[in-house]
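Per-record layout

source: Tachuris rubrigastra
name: PP4R1 phosphatase
length: 282
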Amino acid sequence: QSMDSTLHYIHNDSDLSTNSSFSPEEERKSKVQDVVPQALLDQYLSMTDPSRAQTVDTEIAKHCAYSLPGVALTLGRQNWHCLKDTYETLASDMQWKVRRTLAFSIHELAVILGDQLTAGDLVPVFNGFLKDLDEVRIGVLKHLHDFLKLLHVDKRREYLYQLQEFLVTDNSRNWRFRAELAEQLILLLDLYSARDIYDYLRPIAFSLCADKVSSVRWISYKLVSEMVKKLYMASTSTFVVDLMNELVEKFCRCHKWSGRQTFVFICQTISEDDCLPMDQFA
């Protein structure tokens, strides 16, 4: 009950803002809270001290990162100022395992903190993870939809320009990365308008349909069929007609047999999932 009441109580924005020019005394006061014994929180926050990590346990920062969403949930969003500096320290840790751990849980932390704090404090960290090693990027990719759905519409649209970057990986043989991208794009169709889907997601979907790995292609056929369904249901019908014409042009009339085979598989998926009325399909 006390945890619930903590979570439902939110300070004004002025209380949440932190001033980088704090004196040491003010810095200490900014990390004071009354949810758990202060000594326990101080002990947890000290885990990110570099000297402690080197002399006590090299894995300590990873354990600290793993526990952070739970600590944030316990303290409540009104006490996020106690954890903010520690979170940013961990997000820039030299060990990729620490950053990877945070990348896999940033969507959960966003739910705990709410949209205002997420936009101010988590989005910059999220953007940094997008440019990180593949081992870190996969964490944000696996929960891309979960994170983006929490953002304001305008902020969410900014990521349309970056989705293309997920096609490029450190190792081109990392096909599971592209398969995960296709899975996430299916979920992302609900977050964007018909025009955004046609302009930004369609080129990525077509690229994935021509992937060298069959597992990636199979998920991509489902992605294209869902795209057809979404665009058909949109009030602007020209997008779905343009999309189908491009499918015919790009795959049905492809000089390679694999492209023509892709067209048949896409047709099969569209038919099986009832994405179009049969007269329109014909």
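summary: The two ends are 59 Å apart (CA to CA). The longest helix spans residues 96-130.
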